[in-house]
Each structure stands twice: as C-alpha cells, then as structure tokens.
Write a structure and sequence with these properties.
The complex is a heterodimer of chains A (171) and B (101). Chain A has 171 residues and is mainly alpha-helical. Among the domains of chain A are: 78 residues, NADH-ubiquinone/plastoquinone oxidoreductase chain 6, subunit NuoJ (Four Helix Bundle (Hemerythrin (Met), subunit A), Up-down Bundle); 38 residues. Chain A contains 6 helices and no strands. In chain A, helix 1 packs antiparallel against helix 2 and helix 2 runs antiparallel to helix 3. The longest helix of chain A has 26 residues. The termini of chain A are far apart. Chain B has 101 residues and is mostly helical. Chain B has a domain of 66 residues: Helix Hairpins (Orthogonal Bundle). In chain B, helix 1 runs antiparallel to helix 2 and helix 2 runs antiparallel to helix 3. The longest helix of chain B has 31 residues. The N and C termini of chain B lie far apart (55 Å). The chains are: A mainly alpha (171), B mainly alpha (101).
C-alpha cells in the first residue's frame, strides 16, 4: 500500500516536472509546477513530515507560484522561442551524464540504513511540529536568525531592483 | 511495508535532472527560474527522506531553510526579470550576451 502511494506521487511528480520543462506557455508550466508542489507535499505526509507539507503548500503554492504567475501575466510575452540549438554539446553532455547515471545505478546495491529506527520512532513521542520547533529554536537558533536576515536583504533587493529611478536620484 | 530509501533517491535525482535540463535548454528566463525551483524541490525530497529514515529532525529544519532561500531567490530573481524586461523588452536569455566572452 505504501509502495503504491509512493509510486502514484512519484509518477505525478516526474510527469509534471517534465511538463514544466516541455510546455511552451509559461503559464501552463507554472500551473503544472503547482500540481507538482501539491504532490511533493503529499510525499512529505507519507514521510511523517506534516509540518513541512503544510509549509510547502502555504509558501510554495501560495506565495511563490502566485508571484510567478503575476510576473508571467505582467510581462505577457507571446514570442515562440523554445530550446537552444546546440546539438553536439547537448548530445555529448547528455551521453556523459547518462553513462554516469547508468554506471552508478548498476554498480551494486546502495548503502544499508537501519530499518529498525524507521520513521515511527521519532514523531510518536511528540508531534512533528513540536519536534521541529524545539530543534529550530535550540540547535538552529543562529541559522534561523540568519534566515530572517536573508529575507530582509531579498526584500530590500527586490524593491531597489524594480523601483524606477531610485539609483538616478542619488547621483 | 516501508518504501526503500533508494526509491526516494532515484525520484530526487530524476527531478533534479529534469530541472538541470530545463535550465540548460530553455531560453525563457521564467522557465529557467521554475527549473531552479524543481532542483530545490529535489533536494528537499532528499532531505525529508533521509530525515525520516534516520530518525533525525535536522533534515526537516534544513528543508525549512531551503524554503527560505527559495523564497528570497524568487523575489530577487523576478525583480531582476522585471528590470531586464524594462531594459530591453525581452526575457529571452539569448538577448543578454553582454557578459559573454
């Protein structure tokens, strides 16, 4: 049953991810990325990461995708350009990567992880959100503050980049 | 019945590869940014799978940070796209070859 659910999510994720790259219209690409985000959130739920699933839907699907769609519709580009035309380089790189992947896949079985300490051992005591909160505000308190700083810098950068005439007025 | 972690790694590698191919072959800058989101999601799947299998919550905290960085990247990247479009009325990467040797 678990395997069936995993294969459903994995299949939809791979399908929609390739649609993001293959589709011609950027709006369709963004919408198929939305479907992919929802299925990644479902995958997180099967991995007992419920908090991250909620965050994935709220932040990615709610904020980031809306920003993408806003910019796509703001720019309204109708030109039909699609792929680069660098066939030889592409074929060479693709064959190299394919050979590497096949080599790594068939070289033998991967590392063994302890099946006895599986997913049930951690979130059974406290909930997933409480556990993440405790780790986040004790061990990772300093990176958490740095993350807030990154968001502040990104906000200032976005405002400066898009505001017209903010650089000229200084000089 | 538990899904082996190898499956999650394969899925993550596949999604990362699709994102990489998207960055390399597409010309529309918005699609390139969407492909970067694909790659970030692939690493997030990896983090969550390992966090769940090793019984350690640190991986999920790292996904949290990756999400923060993704949000910042999208804000700055889309601002750059808007500025580029205002500058030359195009979002085709072939039109921006000022830094190409």
């Amino acid at each position: 049953m678990n395997t069936l659910v995993f294969f459903y999510f994995a299949g939809v994720i791979v399908l929609t991810a390739s649609l993001v790259v293959a589709l011609r219209n950027p709006i369709y690409s963004a919408l198929s990325l939305l479907v992919m985000f929802f299925h990644v959130a479902g995958l997180y739920v099967t991995l007992h990461a419920e908090f991250l699933a909620a965050i994935q839907i709220i932040v990615y699907a709610g904020a980031i995708l809306v920003l993408y769609l806003f910019v796509v519709m703001l720019l309204n580009v109708k030109r039909e350009e699609r792929f680069h035309q660098q066939r030889t380089v592409g074929v060479f790189l693709g064959l190299t990567l394919l050979a590497e992947g096949l080599l790594l896949s068939f070289r033998g079985e991967g590392p063994k992880f302890g099946r006895e300490q599986s997913a049930e051992s951690v979130p059974a005591v406290v909930g997933n959100t409480e556990g993440i909160g405790e780790v986040l505000y004790s061990t990772y308190l300093f990176p958490f503050e740095i993350a807030s700083l990154i968001l502040l810098v990104a906000m200032i950068g976005a405002v400066i980049l898009t505001k017209k005439g903010i650089m000229e007025s200084k000089s | 019945m538990v899904v082996p972690i190898t499956y999650y790694l394969m899925l993550s590698g596949l999604v990362f590869l699709i994102g990489l191919v998207g960055v390399l072959i597409r010309r529309n800058i918005i699609i390139i940014l969407l492909s970067i989101e694909l790659m970030l999601n692939a690493t997030n799947i990896n983090f969550v799978a390992f966090s769940s299998y090793l019984g350690n919550l640190s991986g999920q905290v790292f996904v949290f940070f990756a999400l923060t960085v993704a949000a910042a990247e999208v804000a700055v990247g889309l601002a750059i796209i808007v500025a580029l479009y205002r500058h030359s009325a195009s979002i085709n990467v072939d039109d921006f070859r000022l830094l190409k040797w």
